[in-house]
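Throughout our pipeline, every protein is held as a single compact record rather than as scattered files. The record that follows is passed on verbatim for readers who wish to inspect the format:
___
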Amino acid sequence: MAPDPFHKIDRVLIDLAQTKARLAITPLPIVNDLPPLIRSGDKVSLSDLEGGQFTVPENLSVECRRLYSNVAGVDVTLDTPDFPDFSSAIEYSVNTPGAYGHKLLQKKADGGEFGKDIRGTYLRITIGTDLVCELVFE
């Protein structure tokens, strides 16, 4: 009799002494990383989803969905009249060795919390201090 492809696996045993692999068990199957771009459900097509370029907000974790719902408005932008090049300044700072943002990311990478590769780190920019939902860009 062929195995049931829909059966539930309730236990996985791995000899960690024999492997350096990390294991994560989640209630949902992970077949791909989420795409880097989000498109609302009324604007996304099946081709967008199949191509892996876009995901919808509903696919985000609860925390990311909360952040997204706070910052996804048409008029929410990093570049404002009082600092029109804010996003460019951040990009320059994190991509330029010796600049403040790059130094912060390098310090995190050197600490090993996210591995030794600076590309595995993030820069946290908090906007607002008295917001009910503190907005954080990572």
